[in-house]
Amino acid sequence: MNTHRRRITLAAGLAPLAALLPRWASAAPLFESLSLFIPAAPGGGWDTTGRVIEQVCRAAGLVGGVQFENVGGAGGMVGLPKFVAQRKGQGNWLLVGGSVMVGAGIANKSPVTIRNVVPIARLTEEAGVVVVPASSPHRSWKDFAAALKANPKGTSVAGGSAGGTDHLLLGMMIRELGANPKEASYVAFAGGGAAVAAVIGGQVSAGISGYSEFAEHIKAGRLRAIAVSGNARIPGVDVPTLKELGVPITTANWRGVFAPPGVSAAQQKALTELMGAMHRSAQWKEQLEQRKWVDVFLAGDDFARDVAEDIRSTEAVMKDLGLA
């Protein structure tokens, strides 16, 4: 009798503690194991996005474990064919990519492009930022724009892969300044880390990338941000938009995830539900705010239609700029 009462008392005492535990603490993860394929070298935007996906999904109890594979080069066009050929039908794999892959596929005339993978979800959008080394003679956008207009060939700019968002932005800036985009001196890098090092080291006149890739160096004073390409200024970052500076250009770099070809409808649904659960989590919202990523979540058929339209419009811009 006494033993029975003690058990009831113990159970009652544990009930409030159980109520305080996260809902996922006792629930099985949606995926016991998830694999992320990054078609770029470590340190860039896609790699960072993948690491954040792992961090958030694990913290939210959505996955049991995550493994990575990085294969960099040519704006994803080196890794993409490997992903398509080797991961076909594997429903626990996701490729992290984005708008850069669209232009890179066109520029490289790749037989395997973003059309060959299955769109799962668009996650974020990030405005581009134009930076110069702290020691640069270009103290402002006005200085840099004058040099770029007068001598595009002699004003080298580092960025991501050829044909990607950074490259397109440079071409559009040169055109709007009244010079020839075909004379752009664009230095392409397979990974964000190498591009940052080139700008800081003064090997190039300037750099273009998403703000998060340059953020710590801007804050530390190693780089100076002179313009951003979004519709509005980045919250908390006192850098004017190109529109404010009289250059009518607005671009942003979106990032998302794709499944391998050959996945079943059930596998595709499960991956979409995983990304939806991640997107709803408090941990993901914290990362968006911390990294100044814009939430542009779009999934399923809507995302597939958006990718198709992006391919069409990017091809038109690249032809206009003489890049395709």
Would you give an account of this structure?
There is one protein chain. This protein is α/β, with parallel strands linked by helices. It has two domains: 32-125 and 254-320, Bordetella uptake gene, domain 1 (D-Maltodextrin-Binding Protein, domain 2); 126-228, D-Maltodextrin-Binding Protein, domain 2 (3-Layer(aba) Sandwich), CATH 3.40.190.10. It contains eleven helices and ten strands. It has helices at 2-20, 45-59, 79-86, 99-107, 141-150, 165-176, 192-200, 211-219, 265-280, 282-291, 300-320; strands at residues 31-38, 63-70, 93-98, 118-133, 157-159, 186-188, 206-210, 223-228, 252-259, 294-299. The longest helix has 21 residues, at 300-320. The N and C termini lie far apart (84 Å).
Detail the topology: elements first, then pairings:
Elements lengths: L1 H19 L10 E8 L6 H15 L3 E8 L8 H8 L6 E6 H9 L10 E16 L7 H10 L6 E3 L5 H12 L9 E3 L3 H9 L5 E5 H9 L3 E6 L23 E8 L5 H16 L1 H10 L2 E6 H21 L4
Parallel strand pairs: 1-2, 1-3, 5-6, 5-7
Antiparallel strand pairs: 3-9, 4-7, 4-8, 4-9, 4-10
Helix pairs in contact: 4-11
What is the CATH superfamily of the largest domain? Bordetella uptake gene, domain 1
What is the CATH architecture assignment of the largest domain?
3-Layer(aba) Sandwich
Terminal Cα span: 84 Å
Helix tally equals: 11
Instruction: Give the overall silhouette.
Output: globular
CATH fold node name of the largest domain: D-Maltodextrin-Binding Protein, domain 2
Instruction: Give start-end ranges of low-pLDDT stretches.
Output: 1-26
Task: Please estimate the helix content.
Answer: 40-55%
- Describe the main β-sheet briefly: 10 strands, mixed
CATH classification class of the largest domain: Alpha Beta
Q: How many structural domains can be distinguished in the coordinates?
A: 2
Radius of gyration: 23 Å
Q: For the residues shown, what is the average pLDDT?
A: 90
Can you write the helix and strand succession as a string? HEHEHEHEHEHEHEHEEHHEH
